[in-house]
Design a protein that fits this description.
The protein is an alpha/beta fold. It has five helices and five strands; from the N terminus they run E-H-E-H-E-H-E-H-E-H. The chain has one domain: Rossmann fold (3-Layer(aba) Sandwich), CATH 3.40.50.2300. The protein has helices spanning about 20-30, 45-50, 70-85, 100-105, 115-135; strands spanning about 10-15, 35-40, 55-60, 90-95, 110. Strands 2-1-3-4-5 form a five-stranded parallel sheet, with helices on both faces. The radius of gyration is 14 Å and the shape is globular. It starts with 11 loop residues before the first strand and ends in an 11-residue tail after the last helix. The relative contact order is 0.16.
């Protein structure tokens, strides 16, 4: 994985995941990169961290305590629209079927168990697509499914 996002800037990633095992796995995958990882253990914490920070990418678990990933993603997209902010790339992360309404808010998804190669390729592909859309003046989420 490259040390930076495809636009040459250090990547800031928010991982919204309640499983400590998956938190450690993703952190280990991203450790050799210049990516800065912040972890939220539930959907409400993810929404709060997103609104308080600046993130290029969100890895959003679908099922978490306090607030699920779908509600947190809806909150993120609403906040981005209210702020006039460029939409962050959001990848749904799940071990089960994902409701279509959740996928419509996301740029793609990853199925658990997460493999390093799949994570790297998904991030790079979505960053490339997002940068292409920005250069063409388009906006909104890019649909990508594995």
């Amino acid at each position: 994985m490259s040390q930076t996002s495809s636009n040459g800037v250090s990547r800031r990633i928010l991982l919204a995941e309640d499983s400590e095992d998956i938190q450690r796995l993703i952190a280990a995958y991203l450790e050799p990169t210049a990516s800065r990882l912040e972890i939220a253990g539930d959907g409400q914490a993810a929404l709060d961290k997103f609104m308080a920070g600046t993130f290029d990418l969100v890895l959003m678990d679908s099922e978490m305590p306090v607030m699920d990933g779908f509600a947190a993603t809806r909150g993120i997209r609403a906040w981005e629209a209210q702020q006039g902010a460029r939409p962050a790339i959001i990848l749904a992360v799940t071990g089960a079927a994902i409701p279509e309404e959740f996928l419509e808010l996301c740029d793609g998804y990853l199925m658990k168990p997460i493999r390093l190669g799949t994570l790297v390729k998904s991030i790079q592909d979505l960053e490339d697509q997002a940068n292409l859309k920005i250069s063409r003046g388009a906006h909104g989420p890019v649909a990508r499914r594995e």
